[in-house]
Amino acid sequence: MVADSATATGFKLAGASEVYVAEGKEAEKRLVSLLERDNAGIIIVNESVLAGLDWRLKKRIEALAKPVIVGVPDKSGPSADVESLSEMIKRALGFELAVK
């Protein structure tokens, strides 16, 4: 997880194993280092960080099937500029999961 202090604290309390407090360019650098690891399956990032990423990194993330990058809202609320979780799952799996 790469997030602001408040969100990171919540995930630490929930038992997340790797939590990094970072914002802006520092968060972008941390995300790149996590993308290069072989053992990352899901990376949780604040939506505000995802929205501010360099366009080349956004394209790289869009092309990935693994790890899945999940954006979570920060204290300012959800961002309309970030791909939804269901869209990410559909892209990663190649089909849409039906909800009943």
Task: Compile the SSE list and pairings.
Layout: E1 2-3, H1 5-13, E2 20-21, H2 24-35, E3 42-46, H3 47-51, H4 55-63, E4 68-72, H5 85-93
Parallel strand pairs: 1-2, 3-4
Report on the structure:
This protein is of the alpha/beta class. It has one domain: ATPase, V1 complex, subunit F (Rossmann fold, 3-Layer(aba) Sandwich). It is 44% helix and 14% strand.
User: What does the overall shape look like?
Assistant: globular
CATH superfamily: ATPase, V1 complex, subunit F
Query: Largest sheet, order of strands side by side?
Result: 1-2
What is the strand tally? 4
Helix-strand makeup class: alpha/beta
- Tally the structural domains: 1
| Average pLDDT level | 82
Order of helices and strands: EHEHEHHEH
* CATH topology call: Rossmann fold
State the CATH architecture.
Answer: 3-Layer(aba) Sandwich
The largest sheet is:
2 strands, parallel
Uncertain residue segments: none
N- to C-terminal distance: 30 Å
Task: Supply database-style keywords.
4 strands, Rossmann fold, two-stranded parallel sheet, alpha/beta
